């Protein structure tokens, strides 16, 4: 027996003792395996390679076990391998745990792989220590996960695929090259097969409807030849058909509600009329329970992993609100994709994009013109209205979809514009600089608010003098000898005549007026109001308004004929002084 074979036997026996031991795994490793690392470098390297060989040999043996024995045995072996590297780095490489897990999964069906993959999720912190995405165990983890995604079915193992993608997104940085689709490539393998050999109007709509899927699975195809115009027109045809279906559903619902109101006589305990189909018979509790479960399932959101494109099912499919809702959301996603090619959106992305950035995602070189922009906006509004009408809680559903699309838009902008990590030096430097500027501005505002307020210079003549008086306010207000400096009516009228009163263009405001004409009319209205306000002290009798009984008019005021004629002219021009405005008690 050679030295290598004898060393293999010794190490295999030590590993088996660790696996069979009832002691904690750390204690077993220290007793049985750590002594193999106490030697010179050449012997340690040989023992390390031998230990890895033994681990792989045991892994191959475990892979032949039935699932009920394989899962616990594999977890025990993987924990032992991971513990060996943590106990002594000279025992084995840090990537050997993922290598053994990958070899185990290659030999097992997906049902077993789902349980084995939970080892990664449970021991994530231990496995990802010193992870470098571009080398070592980072590449092994990425290769292992991508192989599982490739093997998993989109319809039968969709939850497992989601677990893998969530694990990868939490493991690798957002700017990792493997997670960014630089070329903007689409999944062209997602082909929707349908039979296009039928004839007739319904068959034409059938072909138009399913023909859109070829462009939805490969959006860059829209920008070849005249495809964009054709697809937008076909989407309009589909939306019009959906609108007709929604209208018929509303009409049917209204008729059912009307028929239900006519049958109210049979409620409240009154006997129902006999029928030949047995509807009047007493039903069993089991039948009632089954009917309630069926009605409850109507609110359950249906999921279609792949479209059923048979022509015989087509009429029933488009009559199903859940199916129409899925198609409408799919079209809405394509509409948002197209908005990224509007000139203003492209300018925003190009402005934020770093020059000669090879890591940024490349968009197709296409610009959507204004007529097509209007058409896209109209289709967008139609889709939103139909989504609100298709579901029972349509507005909340639309609000959720638009929120998700808005998040996706910001995510795409990040990929297209700079494609840098959120923790990169450039981003952190910009955030720190912005935070310092905001903090400095906050300190300035706080210092300004902390200073004592200066005295307000709001002197208002007689009113300011009134507030500073020390004598009795009532006596001051009742003093008839106080000087009243209100202007006379004739003085005010002469002044407003100098300001251009009355205007030649009239007083009535019109939407066709220019800015200067509007300002002139408003100024004349203000001047006239001021003149009427002044005239009320001496000419209240001539206002066609109710007055107090104790209002006394001076005789000399009535004798001022010129002022009275002028006042009447002002009143006639002012509708607020007419008798129509007299308040009714």
Automatic annotation (TrEMBL):
Pfam families: efThoc1
Location of region: Disordered: 262-281
GO terms (BP aspect): mRNA export from nucleus
GO cellular component, one term: THO complex part of transcription export complex
Segments crossing the lipid bilayer: none
Domain of life of the native organism: Eukaryota
The protein, known as: THO complex, subunit THOC1
Provenance organism: Gigaspora rosea
